[in-house]
TrEMBL record:
SUPFAM superfamilies: S-adenosyl-L-methionine-dependent methyltransferases. PROSITE patterns: SAM_MT_TRMB (PS51625). Signal peptide: none annotated. Belongs to the class I-like SAM-binding methyltransferase superfamily. TrmB family. The lineage of its organism: Bacteria, Bacillati, Actinomycetota, Actinomycetes, Micromonosporales. It comes from Paractinoplanes bogorensis. It catalyses: guanosine(46) in tRNA + S-adenosyl-L-methionine = N(7)-methylguanosine(46) in tRNA + S-adenosyl-L-homocysteine. This is tRNA (guanine-N(7)-)-methyltransferase. Pfam families: Methyltransf_4 (PF02390). S-adenosyl-L-methionine binds at E43, E68, D95, D117. One of its GO terms (molecular function) is tRNA (guanine(46)-N7)-methyltransferase activity. Pathway: tRNA modification; N(7)-methylguanine-tRNA biosynthesis.
């Protein structure tokens, strides 16, 4: 990590950081984690943290929890938090589905899955995050009316995502709008490479 990110990590990780251990099923109280009862947003795989920091800065009435396995990305997000004085963001290191298992049902206002690893080879598709068993777990952590927002620049994965999400009986398609999602460096690289960007926003049904 750059010196700026190392400094941010040293200063903020003890305050806002959370390590997700494999096999730990201890329930995680999000209100206790943030120190308030505001609606909660989870971003899975936030990359370098640009989008998460921008969305949190524009949305101070909701709390943001981001999880990532890439240490330089965590350092980058912590530097953003330090620069922008964002106190309503928490940062987790570890496996996202391990974290999901620790969250209470219906506790999240939204889940963001922006540009996850597409695992383009057929034999690796089982490693994709958006698959039926995972979607059930993600959906159950949303409140009724909560939003699951996915984005990808891989057309084949976009088709697979749309099929899996539409097949869940408790989810309904809202639109293909990017909403408040800002453009990321990764997204710009995909656009320059000629790959179309697909956004899928699904809502957990209220009945």
């Amino acid at each position: 990590m750059s010196p700026r990110r190392v400094d941010a990590h040293a200063a903020l990780w003890p305050v806002v950081g959370l390590t997700i251990e494999d096999g730990d099923r201890t329930p995680l109280d999000l209100d206790e984690l943030f120190g308030r009862t505001n609606p909660k947003v989870l971003e899975i795989g936030f990359g370098m943290g640009d989008a998460l920091a921008a969305m949190a800065a524009a949305d101070p009435d909701r709390d943001y929890l981001g999880i990532e396995v890439h240490t330089p990305g965590i350092g980058s997000l912590l530097a953003h938090l330090q620069d922008q004085n964002l106190s309503h963001v928490r940062v987790a290191l570890g496996d996202a589905m391990q974290l999901i298992h620790r969250l209470g049902l219906g506790r999240l206002d939204a889940i963001h899955v922006f540009f996850p690893d597409p695992w383009p080879k057929s034999r690796h598709h089982k490693r994709r995050l958006i698959q039926p068993a995972n979607v059930v777990l993600l959906r159950d952590r949303l409140r009724p009316g909560g939003i699951l927002h996915c984005a990808t620049d891989w057309p084949h994965y976009a088709e697979g995502m749309a099929e899996v999400l539409a097949a869940d009986p408790e989810l309904e398609l809202v639109d293909h709008d990017r909403g408040a999602r800002p453009e990321t460096k990764y997204e710009r690289r995909g656009t320059r490479a000629g790959r179309p960007i697909t956004d899928l926003r699904f809502r957990r049904r209220t009945s």
